[in-house]
Amino acid sequence: MTAPAFFPQDIIIRKRDGGALSRDEIDFFARGVVDGAFADYQATALLMAIFWRGMTPQETAWLTDAMMRSGDVIDLRDLPGAKVDKHSTGGVGDKVSLILAPLAVACGLKVPMMSGRGLGHTGGTLDKLEAIPGFRVQLGVPEFRAILQRVGCAMIGQTPQVVPADRKLYALRDVTGTVECIPLICASIMSKKLAEGIDSLVLDVKFGRGAFMKKKEDALTLAHAMVEVGRAAGKPVRALLTAMHQPLGRAAGHTTEVVESIECLKGGGPADLMEVTYALTGQMLILGGKARDAAGARQQMEAVVANGSALKVFREMCAAQGGDARVVDDYSLLPTARKKLEIRAGADARGFVSEVDALRCGHAIMALGGGRAAVTDRIDHAVGLADLIKIGEPVAPGARLCTLHANDEARAARAEALIREAVKFTPAPPRQEPLIHDLVQ
Ligand code: URA
Fold first, then answer.
1. pLDDT tens digit string along 97-111?
2. What residues pair up with 206 in beta bridges, in sequence order?
3. What gap in Å lies between CA 122 and CA 411, rounded to an integer?
């Protein structure tokens, strides 16, 4: 037996004492968590040391690269066209991927998208897609590639062979208080995205009540770190910082979000959701060489919504992934809740909506049974929120705050209480905060 190149304890001690790790040490760590050379207790000790001591941009880039190479890296170079993806750090009502991928394909890009599931108060793209009867998200790489070639986009879950180091490390971070660490978040997200075979990437880094990052400064630091890692990997990456204080759009849940996404592709989407979708897709079109600037991109996107070609791509992707594409014309084919309960403002409601707390709305969805507290939990796709009132809208007694789609009365009562806490009023129109903040590139 040959002696190991390193002893895990030496690597842990170096980081514990504030030193920088070498590329070989970082490679040994990422490989070691998969092949067992780094035991779980040693990996968690190193994660905690990284949490406290941080990593230099160079160490973060090496960790990302080592994690990416811990498994299969999809090679899409033989597929013609620019392959551009988008990743969001997650929020409530964030169904942008469902609209953006068909939109970008209709404008000439290819969109290979590996997405995640919802956890806690935030939703996940895979769960939303699974509200469509028959839709399969667990495809192997050959089928993923074939659909990309034929349709232009495919949306799947991470395969077990892609970035196994992240699967292991994320599970350890989740139970050892080491999730909220910028170099670790950056390496986790970017290793998975770079393993997809993309040419370039757009990031939606969210901040606010309903986001993973509560403070804008933290979101900005993460955005810079991810753009930097993209640069080190030779892939252009742009990040938009977007506010996530209230849910995006007027729907949150699974069926309700699929319906809202299809409405967007038919040209009837809510303004805030379309603003974020057009901004992110526009950046993809610029990176993919399909538009010179945001204004040119916007014209193209509006044209493919107006002429139905973006909706056509959505139908084709649905059918290609086994989903019932008739849902596009008949929403009753989606899982439907037994009750639709309108929540109306009380007698004292006057003025304008000043707050629709995205975190409480996310908790309301969980209360209805539409969220996951643990990765193994089953979710009810039929339940959720629709017709949600937005910040700045006028209110009077009896105004509708939202419609609950519920399957259980006790759960609906808990969700109603959370929605009533989430929505606040003010006598004068509140200051409207911008939705899209910085562009980092
Ligand atoms: N999402 C990820 O994929 N990884 C993290 O570390 C945090 C959010």
1. 999 999 999 999 999
2. 242
3. 18
Q: Any catalytic annotation for residue 214?
A: no
Task: Determine the Cα–Cα distance for residues 347 and 397; give it in Å rounded to an integer.
Answer: 5
Determine the 3-state secondary structure of 401 from DSSP: strand
* CB 122 less than 6 A from any atom of ligand 1: no
Atom of ligand 1 nearest to the CA of 179: 6
Do residues 375 and 119 make contact, with C-beta atoms less than 8 angstroms apart? yes
Q: Which of 90-94, 170-174, 196-200, 247-251 shows the lowest mean pLDDT across its residues? A: 170-174
**Nearest residue to 79 (alpha-carbon basis) of 228, 239, 181, 197:** 197
Cβ 45 vs Cβ 10: under 8 Å: no
Residue 174 Cα to ligand 1 middle (Å): 10
Phi, psi of 12 (to 5 degrees): -60, -45
Give the residue, by CA position, lying nearest to ligand 1 atom 3: 189
Task: Give me the mean pLDDT over the 317-333 stretch.
Answer: 98
Ligand 1 centroid to residue 28 C-alpha, Å: 21
Among residues 121, 173, 206, 363, the one annotated as catalytic is: 173
What are the tens digits of pLDDT across the range 298-323?
999 999 999 999 999 999 999 999 99
- AA identity, residue 326: R
Q: How far is CA 293 from CA 152, 198, 249, 286, 416, in A?
A: 22, 21, 25, 6, 44
Question: Can 414 be counted among the known catalytic residues?
Answer: no
Query: Exposed/middle/buried for 298, CB within 10 Å: 0-12, 13-18, 19+?
Result: middle
Q: What is the pLDDT of residue 1?
A: 62
* CA atoms of 407 and 364, how far apart (whole Å): 13
pTM: 0.95
Pairing state of beta strands 84-88 and 200-207? parallel
